[in-house]
Amino acid sequence: PTSPSPEFYAEYTPAAPPAALPRPPLRLSCVVPAFNEAVNLPRFIPALAEAVAQLTPHFEIVIVNDGSTDATHTVAMELVAHSGLPLRYLALSRNFGKEAALSAGIDHTRGNAVVLIDGDFQHPLDLLPEMHDLWQRGYDMVYGVIADRGAESGAKRVGTHLFYRIMNAGNSVKMPPNAGDYRWLDRKVANALKALPERHRFMKGLYAWVGFKTAALPFVPLDRAAGASSFNLRRLGSLALLGLTSFTTLPLRVWSVIGALVALAALLYGGWITLETLLFGADLAGWPTLAASIMLFSGVQLMSIGILGEYIGRIYDEVKQRPSYLLARDEDHSSLRSNDNV
Ligand code: UDP
Ligand code: MG
């Protein structure tokens, strides 16, 4: 099910791959965000280590515990102490959300390439050799594209489609639809992401914004091994709102256009009734029209103020300059050191 379809390559990947450049020997950092993954981690981390060991002996796995409320902490500490794997364990001080957990992970990686992968087995491990291959051929970022959303609800699919349409309509930086967080990043890209100062981080937008040579790799997400997805419609909605307010001003522009159109219509209508009165002396009836239009346009105004408010809220959040996450714990059993970077 994970075999790439040529159409996906054609649509998202530059036709001619970048010229092959000799990459330094791979030192890979894997970032695994974990929120209530106590059941999955004891199987997932060894499985990931085994898959990665096929590519290089020099690797580390960074587990980011995003304020889990189950036994994730105990399980991760156990893995760090007894698995003998090159692990790094970061515990955030509370649940900051997946975007922040990924940022925390990336900030602490030391390899010359970074893989971001979910800890619930949904991102197929057998994509890693292909990602590695594309990286070696010169691509700086290889991202998984969800090739089949078959298992998802209709509402989620419609919402996703709408979101990407709005996002990309008003933006010169195009976000590839259905690209997920399953990614292989060159050190350059990881450093670029680290350098972006915003606090509320919409990762999918940031990946697109930093640019670099990217390649898409279609995959069919597997079923969650255990536990439940923490992204319900409400949470997805607020993530979408974060994305929109951080990456496009299109919703603001829409209201300027609507305002201009309404003003124009009012002007024409005003002109028309003046003329009508002068020429035909028509009597000016119509309080229902008045009432209806007042209601309509106060509604329109409230909506536009609301949208304005979303943007101001975003600005308010950013100017406070609070860090996007806080670390409560950092257990380092990794063998990679920061001078390994280049
Ligand atoms: N996750 C996280 N913090 C959160 C929610 C999720 O670190 O607040 C992690 C979770 O442990 C998993 C990944 O992000 O490794 C994807 O989450 P999930 O499976 O719930 O989302 P879905 O796969 O449905 O998009
Ligand atoms: Mg999942």
Query: How many β-strand stretches?
Result: 8
What best-fitting shape do the alpha-carbon axes yield?
A: elongated
Low-confidence stretches: none
What string, H for helix and E for strand, traces the elements in order? HEHEHEHEHEHEHHEHHHE
Q: Give me the secondary-structure category.
A: alpha/beta
**Beta fraction of the residues?**
5-15%
Fraction of residues in helices? 40-55%
Rounded to an integer, what's the Rg over CA atoms? Answer: 25 Å
How would a crystallographer describe the biggest sheet?
Answer: 8 strands, mixed
Heterogens: uridine-5'-diphosphate, magnesium ion
The total count of helices amounts to: 11
Average predicted local confidence, pLDDT = 85
* Order of the strands making up the biggest sheet: 7-5-6-4-1-2-3-8
Spatial separation of the terminal alpha carbons: 35 Å
Walk me through this protein's architecture.
It is a single chain. The protein is of the alpha/beta class and 342 residues long. Helices cover 47% and strands 15% of the residues. It contains 11 helices and 8 strands. Strands 7-5-6-4-1-2-3-8 form an 8-stranded mixed sheet, sandwiched between helices. Helix 2 links the parallel strand 1 and strand 2. Helix 6 packs parallel to helix 9. It is elongated, with a radius of gyration of 25 Å. The mean pLDDT is 85. Bound molecules: uridine-5'-diphosphate and magnesium ion.
